[in-house]
């Protein structure tokens, strides 16, 4: 991602490799979009979700967007086992409890994307 951003001369995109369960080295209210893709199945969402999404909320600007892509909670020939996957309503419940509101849902076939806003001014991402 960092190489693509650099090749396109996009100076406002930062790819950061970090521990999602720890405070991140990012200023409060300084990020427009946080994109989390196919990693939440690794964690106990009820236990770790509040700390993860509270940290995301802290970093996002007013009107900022959180986009989460996860595998649907169904048997598939690839990806994590069904028992490790999170259904959309499970993800929504935890994220909304951290101060977000849902602004969009997109069915991506084997996956889904849910979009959340940290303030009232957000609009859904378009694909």
Please provide a written account of the structure.
- With 127 residues, the chain is α+β, with helices and mostly antiparallel strands.
- The chain has one domain: Vaccinia Virus protein VP39 (Rossmann fold, 3-Layer(aba) Sandwich).
- 24% of the residues lie in helices and 27% in strands.
- It contains three helices and four strands, in the order αβαβαββ.
- Strands 1-2-4-3 form a four-stranded mixed beta sheet.
- Strand 1, helix 2 and strand 2 form a beta-alpha-beta unit.
- The longest helix has 15 residues.
- The two termini are 17 Å apart.
- InterPro entries: Methyltranfer_dom, SAM-dependent_MTases_sf.
- This is Methyltransferase domain-containing protein.
- It comes from Desulfosarcina ovata subsp. sediminis.
- It holds the Pfam family Methyltransf_31.
């Amino acid at each position: 991602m960092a190489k693509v951003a650099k090749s396109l001369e996009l100076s406002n995109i930062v790819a950061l490799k970090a521990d999602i369960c720890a405070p991140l080295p990012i200023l409060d209210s300084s990020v427009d979009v946080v994109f989390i893709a196919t990693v939440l199945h690794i964690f106990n969402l009820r236990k770790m979700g509040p700390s993860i999404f509270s940290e995301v909320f802290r970093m996002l600007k007013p009107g900022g967007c959180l986009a989460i892509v996860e595998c649907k909670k169904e048997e598939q020939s690839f990806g994590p086992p069904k028992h490790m996957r999170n259904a959309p309503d499970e993800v929504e419940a935890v994220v909304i409890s951290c101060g977000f509101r849902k602004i969009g849902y997109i069915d991506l076939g084997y996956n889904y994307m849910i979009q959340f806003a940290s303030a009232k001014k957000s609009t859904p991402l378009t694909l």
